[in-house]
């Protein structure tokens, strides 16, 4: 089998005058893969290690959200820009329906897309981050460290945040640190991060949510029609496991799989077990 590389899989589309970049690998039913947030994140860094397996069964489409340094920048809040990017991207590829895997923020975007356009999501897989804290303090430790880095980016703060993402610190290699540092300190990427994780922005968003008559997304999860698999690291310090309780109870057709000795990146830290679980779910007959 030919090795799957960054360069060979990279594609781009012009959507409403902006460039969306993505990685494509494999043939078969379309599988949309949505990355999380955080310093130096990209879809490739979240899911590159999983493409070898999933591309044997699916046409894998790893979308790079606007504002994270790969697709075009955005002056919007990154979450606000991410949600409309999904249907625009699928329309540009003439795809009516896809299975979706979303990590953290990507899982929230995938869930919101499944709420708003349920006919377009055949199955939904999330990796941590979906729901709301029930017993744990909010925001979690990893989010607080992310705020610290965003407000005053230093290499030391980046390393501290990266260690909060994993159970095994050996996963945080020098190569990972350098790649993340280069991406995270790009001026446009850093500006987008501050629109999402600046302390004042988060405090303002919390006040706005309290005053808003609109229900938060986690209160609408019962509208998801797609079969859903929630995956979580037992030792997640970014989005603690108790966040899964609301989606586990309210999504109609949902399963929860928890991986031991695992932080926020289950698809990386428990790669083989996570891939086996997700592949079985995605390929199971109705």
Low-confidence stretches: none
CATH architecture: 3-Layer(aba) Sandwich
**Tally of structural domains:** 1
The H/E string reads HEEEHHEHEHEHHHHHEHEHH
Question: What is the fold named in CATH at topology level?
Answer: Rossmann fold
Enumerate how many helices there are, as a single number: 13
- CATH homologous superfamily descriptor: Alpha/Beta hydrolase fold, catalytic domain
Search tags:
single chain; 286 residues; eight-stranded mixed sheet
Summary?
With 286 residues, the protein is α/β, with parallel strands linked by helices. It contains 13 helices and eight strands.
Explain this structure.
Pfam families: Abhydrolase_1. One of its GO terms (molecular function) is hydrolase activity. Its EC number is 3.7.1.14. With about 290 residues, the protein is α/β, with parallel strands linked by helices. It has a single domain, classed as Alpha/Beta hydrolase fold, catalytic domain (Rossmann fold, 3-Layer(aba) Sandwich), CATH 3.40.50.1820. It contains 13 helices and 8 strands. The protein has helices spanning about 5-10, 45, 50-55, 80-90, 105-115, 140-150, 155-165, 175-185, 185-195, 200-210, 245-250, 265-270, 270-285, and strands at about 10-15, 20-25, 30-35, 60-65, 100-105, 120-125, 225-235, 255-260. An 8-stranded mixed sheet has the order 1-2-4-3-5-6-7-8, sandwiched between helices. α11 links the parallel β7 and β8. α4 crosses α5 (about 105-115) and α6 (about 140-150) crosses α9 (about 185-195). The protein starts with 5 loop residues before the first helix and ends with a helix. The model has no long low-confidence stretch (mean pLDDT about 95).
């Amino acid at each position: 089998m030919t090795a799957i590389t960054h360069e060979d899989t990279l594609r781009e589309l012009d959507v409403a005058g902006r460039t969306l970049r993505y990685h494509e690998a494999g043939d078969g039913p379309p599988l949309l893969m949505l990355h999380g947030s955080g310093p130096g994140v990209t879809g490739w860094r979240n899911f590159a290690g999983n493409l070898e397996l999933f591309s044997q069964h699916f046409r894998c489409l790893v979308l790079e959200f606007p504002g994270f340094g790969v697709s075009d920048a955005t002056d919007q809040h990154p979450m606000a820009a991410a949600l409309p990017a999904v249907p625009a991207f699928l329309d540009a590829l003439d795809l009516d329906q896809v299975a979706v895997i979303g990590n953290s923020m990507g899982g929230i975007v995938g869930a919101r897309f499944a709420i708003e356009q349920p006919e377009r999501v055949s199955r939904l897989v999330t990796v941590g981050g979906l729901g709301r804290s029930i017993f744990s303090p909010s925001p979690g430790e990893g989010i607080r460290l992310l705020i610290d880095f965003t407000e005053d980016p230093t290499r030391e703060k980046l390393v501290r945040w990266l260690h909060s993402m994993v159970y095994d610190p050996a996963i945080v290699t020098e190569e990972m640190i350098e790649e993340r540092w280069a991406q995270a300190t790009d001026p446009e990427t850093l500006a987008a991060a501050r629109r999402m994780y600046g302390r004042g922005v988060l405090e303002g968003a919390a006040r706005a949510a309290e005053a808003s008559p609109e229900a938060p997304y986690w209160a609408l999860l019962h509208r998801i029609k797609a079969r859903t698999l929630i995956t979580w690291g037992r030792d997640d310090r970014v989005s603690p496991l108790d966040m899964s309780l609301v989606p586990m109870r309210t999504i109609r057709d949902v399963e929860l799989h928890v991986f031991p000795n695992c932080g926020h990146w289950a698809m990386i830290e428990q790669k083989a077990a996570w891939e086996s679980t997700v592949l079985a779910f995605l390929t199971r007959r109705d």
